[in-house]
Design brief:
482 residues; 70% helix; two-stranded antiparallel ribbon; mainly alpha
């Protein structure tokens, strides 16, 4: 009886205190921010009791997160709310749990992808210390660490339960559908034929149509796989089919040529895997193709300069404009950013300028003849526009090498795990994750988004799915029940 009375007294005491604080902040400070305290308390409680639920909650919040400078203009720093504070909290909680238990799955720590990540993060940390802007670089590195902690190391443990894979995809895509409807409502008011409107209607949830299109293409393989998998519940398949239709329409209306291209390449890779063509010749072919393009870039550019088709609401014209490097401002600006990254690398080839510093350092490397109508000196239209040339400029040759090795190992281990299992559901999930990652790696030649929660959360989560299966299919399948 005393215990029940204590609970009642505590409840009313906290309620009265909260009402008093709310009244004070409303009258004296003219703000309702104090009302976020119950939500914050619920998040903290969830983190302490069920970290897996908090990870899934972050997945839902990611498409809906907003940059801080949109909410509070004029700040000298930025972050995505509420995801990045939650991820930072998860990082601290993970380190605390690690120190408390003093143990972690050694097979996970020694996995080839984990070893590649140590190289990737280690070199990034070293170049952050030698950076031209150390504080910027260290913040950039820390953000990488909390993304990886939550959705790689913790994600692998989360995805040992197959149900959590479906929950992750469902929550991210469910929130993404809300963004799609928001974008369509704005696009409808301006006219769906308006290509320029397609560039910004998803803002502020996604910065522009390129990041929006990249994530639509990223999830389409997974939605397609779930739709066509006969062993799943019909309700799941119908929901996935509905989401697939919405995502496909949104991808078309995004007018993101890079996203369209990435999905086509993903489909080609799916076919190659289904035909059981070995990974090594594919990798050698890809590297050889990139090397040949680099060697013969001058004649290739001369050939492309014959194309003068510009972006258009007509889909075929818009597709043909992908190779227009004569008058299409978007394509020309990419070439400008890429050439700046290469000149930055040539000046600092070993340690680079520092992670996250490209946007602050590239302006002096712009040549007048390469500037376009949309060129700026502040990188407010994106960074290096490449997941490969960005690290090259910011962390030198080893920075690029660390990312390429990491990407190659992810795909290799994914295909290896896919070939090693006969379980149809495991093959579905692995192949969907592999193709999703392929779409992003292809898109990474033209844009870079892994410094944002929108791309980092799903990208590293899909990597975690691959590694979880690669680790645990050797002795056991990931659990299918709670």
């Amino acid at each position: 009886m005393f215990r029940r009375s204590t609970q009642i007294i505590l409840f009313y005491s906290v309620s009265i205190l909260f009402l008093a604080l709310n009244f004070y902040f409303l009258v004296q400070r003219e703000t309702l921010l104090i009302n976020l305290l119950p939500l914050l308390a619920a998040v903290v409680f969830t983190a302490l009791v069920r970290m897996d639920r908090l990870l899934l909650l972050v997945a839902f919040f990611t498409p809906l997160s907003l940059p801080l400078n949109k909410l509070v203009p004029g700040l000298s720093f930025d972050m995505y709310l509420p995801t990045e504070p939650l991820l930072f909290g998860l990082l601290l909680l993970f380190l605390f749990k690690l120190a408390e238990n003093r143990s972690f799955d050694k097979s996970l720590l020694k996995h080839p992808v984990s070893l590649a990540l140590y190289f990737y993060l280690g070199w990034m940390l070293l170049t952050s210390l030698t950076s031209t802007m150390p504080l910027v670089s260290l913040k950039f590195w820390l953000a990488k660490v909390w993304f990886l902690t939550a959705f790689y190391w913790m994600g692998i443990l989360l995805f040992r339960n197959i149900k959590n894979i479906y929950w992750f995809v469902g929550l991210y895509c469910g929130a993404f559908v809300l963004v799609i409807f928001y974008a369509w409502s704005r696009h409808l008011a301006l006219g769906f034929h308006n290509v320029q409107a397609a560039h910004f209607v998803m803002n502020p949830f996604y910065k522009d149509h390129t990041s929006y299109g990249a994530m639509l293409a990223f999830f389409i393989p997974f939605l397609l796989g779930i739709t066509l998998f006969p062993k799943l519940r019909m309700s799941y398949r119908l929901l996935a089919a509905l989401a697939l239709v919405l995502f496909a329409l949104a991808l078309v209306l995004s007018y993101s040529r890079a996203a369209w291209l990435s999905l086509l390449v993903g489909a080609a890779v799916w076919l190659l895997i289904r035909l059981k063509i070995r990974f090594r010749p594919l990798f050698v072919t890809a590297v050889s193709t990139i090397a040949l393009v680099w060697i013969f870039q001058a004649p290739i550019l001369q050939f492309l300069e014959r194309n003068d088709q510009e972006s258009s609401a007509d889909l075929m014209t818009h597709i043909s404009s992908m190779t227009n490097v004569t008058s299409d401002a978007s394509n020309l600006e990419r070439l400008n950013r890429w050439s700046c990254a290469i000149r930055m690398f040539e000046e600092k080839p070993v340690f680079g300028w520092g992670p996250g510093t490209y946007m602050f350092q590239y302006a002096p490397f712009q040549l007048t003849r390469h500037r376009t109508t949309i060129s700026t000196n502040s990188a407010d239209r994106g960074n290096a526009h490449s997941e490969y040339l960005g690290p090259l400029a910011e962390s030198g040759f080893l920075g690029l090498l660390s990312f390429v090795v990491l990407a190659a190992l992810i795909l290799y281990r994914g295909i290896h795990a896919y070939s090693a299992t006969n379980d149809p559901e495991a093959r579905l999930l692995l192949l969907s994750a592999i193709i999703g990652i392929v779409t992003y790696l292809v898109h990474g030649f033209l844009n870079n988004f892994l410094d944002t929660d929108k791309a980092s959360v799903p990208f590293w989560a899909f990597v975690a799915i691959i590694v979880a299966y690669d680790l645990y299919t050797k002795s056991e399948q990931p659990a299918s029940d709670d």
